[in-house]
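Researcher: I'd like a structural prediction for the single chain below. Treat it as a standalone chain; there are no partners to consider.
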Amino acid sequence: MTEKIGDIAAKTQPSADTARSQPSDFTKNYGKFERTGSTFKHEIITHAGAKLTGYSKPQHQPEPADKQVLLTKIIGRLYRKYLDKGGSITFFRVYDANPANDEEIATIFKDRYEAVSRVTVNEKWLMDWLHTFYNRATTYNSNDRELIPKSQPVRQTEPVQAPDYDPTGISRHESRQPSRPALVPNPARQPAYQDPLDKNRRFKDQDEFHIYVQKLRQDGVPSDAIRGFYDYVKGFVPK
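Model: Treating it as a single chain, here is the predicted structure.
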């Protein structure tokens, strides 16, 4: 038998004793990340040689929609936290559940960065951002009146080769090379994102509302968040 809306709502509301004895879902998930649903992965090699792996999607929470902003925020945060004493951090694009399919983006060090050729060719915005990030400390050269970076961080991990063209002007390899997803999705080309707990969502009937709330539970959305969504939206569901 299909569960009733009231039964689902009751399951989202912990008892008073449970609420006092158990940490909230937000507390349990804070600072935790998961591979499923992540756009990026990072591998940290600390100055002591330890290897740490992390992902971009918070556990049981939606990942930010703007992937460019997401990546740069992660780079800035990890740079300040891990690279003061040395080491490196390599960033990857995650495509599926298999780590073997992850594609490298760039490696950062305390005083330089190394971007793969696909980034230098297709992700100019990221190269510009990295250049600005690494050259924020400068010295002034009074002779040529230019700001000279203290370091020159731009290095590629592999050379960028010009494509092989035929007389028609079309790359000979173009038809044989399958198109790949962007290393860093362009926010202007992303589908519109709607928060799964957006209280402006509307449902045609009780069954549709019931199925949706049940899915939120199955997706691991914190029960207190579901409760707030349920209590507000139920008043707009036709009976």
